[in-house]
Amino acid sequence: MQRQFFAQVARLPAQIPTEVERIRAEPTATDPAAVVDDFLPPELRVPTHDQLGGRMTSWQQPLVFDSELVACAECGVYRGWVILSTRDQIWLRCPAGHQQRETRLDTAWYNRHTGPADSTHATFEDCLRHLGH
Fold this sequence. Notes:
Elements: H1 2-11, H2 18-25, E1 55-59, E2 64-65, E3 68-69, E4 81-86, E5 89-93, E6 99-101, H3 107-113, H4 124-130
Antiparallel strand pairs: 1-4, 2-3, 4-5, 5-6
């Protein structure tokens, strides 16, 4: 099988049509292509990750990891979270405003469980208001 395969591969260069060789031999045009500004206008561009301080989303249902219900360390609330993703860390914010780092989550988890951003905000407080906190 290998001998047959290598024999077929060896015959491939002879099977290239002469038209292909003629096209390869022709000089290509060196005229510069016209520059078209087809990039989105600034008001329609999405900020890149390095332009954002972080991302956040609301998460109404309880979070359970390794059969353990995640609750706020200060007030015991276990639903109605805001999940913050910043600097490769995940933080949970309860409805009362307490924040705690969640080491069992990572940015990959956040990206898998959230959709595209529907808006951007200049301040952390503006984003919290947008999410209803």
